[in-house]
Amino acid sequence: MAPKILIVTGDAAESLEVLYPYQRLREEGYEVDIAAPTRKKLRFVVHDFEPGFDTYTEKPGYTWPADLAFSEVDPGQYAALVIPGGRAPEYLRGDAELRKIVKSFFDTDRPVAQICHGPLLTASVDALRGRRVTAYPALETDMQAAGATFQDAEVIVDGTLVSSRAWPDHAQWMREFLTVLRAKAPAAG
């Protein structure tokens, strides 16, 4: 049986930051579940960079069903965790069930991949203190406030934590995450 990977997200997550790792990890042979506050059709968004805008723009993105509600997740069933960005982490960090899930991966030193605004979740469980991370560059002060050393780079690997800035860095992010994942929980043949 293939190791299972958990993606935690919600409405307004960045479409590419959910669906790219979902497809890439399945391609690699892992079973992947998407968990959200409730089992429902999630509505993702597309963040893009356009000339003349000081920050990204947001447009409606894909919809995708959540496999599980956070309350149904048994973190011990999963080899690794993926935390996409978008606006979802901003409101999800207040969810007590999700914080328990995220904390359990750090308590047991299992691989965690976070991207863009995803580190807002790991910061909410005090998992970034003393670590090196990257995130969407506007989060530099948030990462420092969480006790992390922020670096503006495509990808940062700190033990089993792999972080990246945003979807343009996907190839580097998943390459490094898969290196960590293969060492800790290789997919079956």
TrEMBL record:
Species of origin reads Streptomyces endophyticus
Record-annotated DJ-1/PfpI domain positions: 4-178
Q: Which InterPro entries match?
A: C56_PfpI-like, Class_I_gatase-like, DJ-1/PfpI
Regarding protein family, the annotation reads:
Belongs to the peptidase C56 family.
Q: Name the PROSITE patterns for this protein.
A: PEPTIDASE_C56_PFPI
A Pfam family? DJ-1_PfpI
Name of the featured protein: DJ-1/PfpI family protein
Record-annotated membrane-spanning stretches? none
Q: Which SUPFAM superfamilies match?
A: Class I glutamine amidotransferase-like (SSF52317)
